[in-house]
Amino acid sequence: MPKLTVENVGEFEVESGKRLVLALTEDAQIDQLHACGGASRCTTCRVEFIEGEPEKMTVAEKNTLAAREVTGCRLSCQILCDHDMTVRAISRLEGCGRADAGHMPKPEIEPQPVEWVDK
């Protein structure tokens, strides 16, 4: 099982292949935002990687980050926990002014991922 370390929160073993956004909310039990429900339509589920950043990203993630001109972070809704990683959860419900974190993402990545080699 991969180990997920969340800065200032702790270490967690997560099911291999679990979406990072779900590991953050269910396993680490933090208030990670996911306003679009994990469909790569917004950038509220942003995380910064300290270690273990995946080499690949979905085309949807690449396009969303580019369209919003976001750099230096990744979308947790588009990442699978398939190896050890350490992240900083930078997009949290606390203090953001939203009523809730968003609609709970499905277990599988959506839209259907097409892997992209360049980060």
Jot down its keywords.
five-stranded mixed sheet; alpha+beta; Ubiquitin-like (UB roll); two-stranded antiparallel sheet
The number of helical runs is: 2
Number of domains: 1
User: What gross morphology would you assign?
Assistant: globular
| Category by helix and strand content | alpha+beta
The termini sit apart by 25 Å
Strand order of the largest sheet: 2-1-8-4-6
Are there runs of 5+ residues with pLDDT below 50, and where? none
Q: H/E series, N to C?
A: EEEHEEHEEEE
CATH class descriptor name: Alpha Beta
Label the CATH architecture: Roll
The profile of the biggest β sheet is:
5 strands, mixed
Radius of gyration: 13 Å
Number of strands: 9
Task: State the fourth-level CATH superfamily.
Answer: Beta-grasp domain
Helicity level, as a percent range?
Answer: 10-25%
User: What is the chains' assembly state?
Assistant: single chain
Beta strand %: 15-25%
Average residue pLDDT: 93
3D architecture notes:
The chain is α+β, with helices and mostly antiparallel strands. 14% of the residues lie in helices and 24% in strands. The protein contains 2 helices and 9 strands. The strands form 3 sheets. Strands 2-1-8-4-6 form a 5-stranded mixed beta sheet, with helices on one face. A hairpin with a 3-residue loop joins strand 1 (3-6) and strand 2. The radius of gyration is 13 Å and the shape is globular. The model has no long low-confidence stretch (mean pLDDT 93). Residues 2-93 form the 2Fe-2S ferredoxin-type domain. One of its GO terms (molecular function) is iron-sulfur cluster binding. Residues 99-109 have a biased composition (Basic and acidic residues). Residues 99-119 are annotated as: Disordered.
